[in-house]
Amino acid sequence: MNSSNKHNNRWRQEDITFLQENYGKISLEDIGEHLGKTPMAVRLYVLRHRLDDRHQVRNCLSIVSAIWRISLLASSSIRRRESTK
Q: Number of structural domains, the chain?
């Protein structure tokens, strides 16, 4: 554990670089121990900064799903207007 970072909650650029290079390769516990942070602090950073591909895929699928629903609503609205003419 880095003693210089032990009581510092801020993420330094070198911490972020280490996390980006090692996330998914070594455990959150090992990353946290190296950085002087808890595994939960590491996980929260990953989630807040969207470093986790699985969450990015889910977010992307949510956007695609929303666009698809909007297009369905728009097309059904257009059909209703055309049928009343």
A: 2
